[in-house]
């Protein structure tokens, strides 16, 4: 079992793909700097407040006897406009030119950059990928994910932060996930608490009992609530944020029948289009079969919920 030192020194490599992923990455790394007590150039603001080195997200460099931290990240886009905004921002000295890459027809140059970075890691944990499910870089994201999950990094963790198009934008309307079923039901919920004054007893008793009145849980999957607590205070962008600074925050992640079913249907439609445009490969067939099985599981579960509760089309469901 890994000790605390190993946990603090596990490295995570982040990929920000497309204009959406690049914008997300820009804001995330600003927040990382605030949370890890780093200045806009990657130097430590106050040595006394730096209890644990931010090795998980940053690589440590020595510049003129001063510790400088660089993001473990790579920004990828087919146009340079979004990346140029980062290079001209106040955080321009936080990055190096090698961390920005213009997309070409082949992903091999990007894979070489990733391999070159990761070969210097001591405890590489996995990837965190920010991208959009639509746009000019979506096909590249699929190809990159397929390559990363091959033999090279098949045992590593890959977490994706996927952004779906807004229904207000006409260009994205066909990609938007529509949710019209009245039988949506929560299968599992994770509550992530953050703050210096979080009391576990208060979280476990009062707040969760109140939230059970808002969501309807399936008896077939009695997982209930899972909670995580981070005792560090929340950070905000003081100069731009519209949010008030509070000492406590909570974020809810919910897996429900309606959203999952429509996500599977949208994925199947995209695979159908891909299979028509090119010869069906083994990976494409496996993905198609997996999504088809996942959709059938959710449909079966939703039908059991309808039958067990005696619901009909006129039954209100909140």
From TrEMBL:
It comes from the Eukaryota. GO terms for biological process: microtubule-based process. Residues 284-311 form a coiled coil. Residues 11-168 form the Tubulin/FtsZ GTPase domain. InterPro entries: Tub_FtsZ_C, Tubulin, Tubulin/FtsZ_GTPase_sf, Tubulin_FtsZ_GTPase. GO terms for cellular component: microtubule. The keyword RNA-binding does not apply. Keywords: Coiled coil, GTP-binding, Microtubule, Nucleotide-binding. It holds the Pfam family Tubulin. One of its GO terms (molecular function) is GTP binding. Belongs to the tubulin family. This is Tubulin/FtsZ GTPase domain-containing protein. It comes from Rotaria sordida.
